[in-house]
Amino acid sequence: MLELQAVSVFYGKIRALAEVSLRVASGEVVALIGGNGAGKTTTLRAISGLLRPRAGRIVFEDREITRWGPERIVRSGLAHCPEGRQVFPEMTVLENLEMGAYARPGGTADRLDRVFTLFPVLRERRGQRAGSLSGGEQQMLAIGRALMSEPRLILFDEPSLGLAPVVVREVARSIRALNEAGATVLLVEQNARLAFTVAHRGYVLENGRIVLEGAIATLAGDERVRQAYLGG
Ligand code: ATP
Fold first, then answer.
1. C-alpha 41 to ligand 1 mean position (Å)
2. 74-100 confidence digits (pLDDT tens)
3. Which residue's alpha carbon is nearest to atom 30 within ligand 1?
4. Cα(72)–Cα(70) distance, rounded to whole angstroms?
5. Closest Cα partner for 56 from 120, 10, 105?
6. Rounded to 5°, angle at Cα 223 from 206 and 84
7. Is the CB of 34 under 6 A from ligand 1?
8. Mind listing the pLDDT tens digit for each residue in 180-215?
9. How many other CB atoms sit within 10 Å of the CB of residue 38?
10. 13 lines ligand 1 (CB under 6 A)
11. Nearest C-alpha to atom 1 of ligand 1 is from which residue?
12. Ligand 1, residues 9, 36, 41: which to mutate, most atoms within 8 A of Cβ?
């Protein structure tokens, strides 16, 4: 469904990604694991058209999207749920969700209903300013907003960052529910714990390079991975 072929991204003279190749098949949850500065966010931004690779190709559902702009990519069925949540704090929950649908208008009421079923707390708080929600609620809103474009593939950038363990479990549950409802997921995480509980396969990124890939059970059993990303 998604394939990166030897993608390299530079910031000026600095190479942030070095020939990164990875695949996500339809129906999978794939994790991209790596430490600070490994290039995880850069990878997602390249896929969603926010950064242009200097070399390599990105293919989504048999179409090359390497040089497409972000709006066209969203319209084609791929959504990006960015790090740090990035909801619009002065807008209400409902307005934030409506923003998520702008690239794919029509049928918004049904989609809203689905998001509210997945996250009932958002229905209760739909008139509240997004900036006044708790961290976990803002994360749910960011996920909900990404869902409003009815994506077939969703990119998640560190959805567990800064959340209490009980909220991380809630986020894990919602990612599983999305996947069971038919969405394919590429999940970026620095802390591998969430990735290990929801992903089928994973890649480990270090210094802009893929250094390891495999079934999630294999990665979870790898001593080096455990040391680096689970704290031993
Ligand atoms: P983190 O988990 O800390 O967010 P990451 O794996 O998402 O890390 P990236 O944000 O993709 O890492 O950054 C990869 C590398 O590119 C880092 O060395 C970073 O300093 C550099 N970088 C990122 N954005 C820019 C930028 N706008 N200009 C210059 N260098 C950048």
1. 7
2. 889 999 988 767 889 999 999 999 988
3. 11
4. 6
5. 10
6. 45
7. yes
8. 888 999 999 887 888 889 999 999 999 999 999 999
9. 22
10. no
11. 36
12. 41
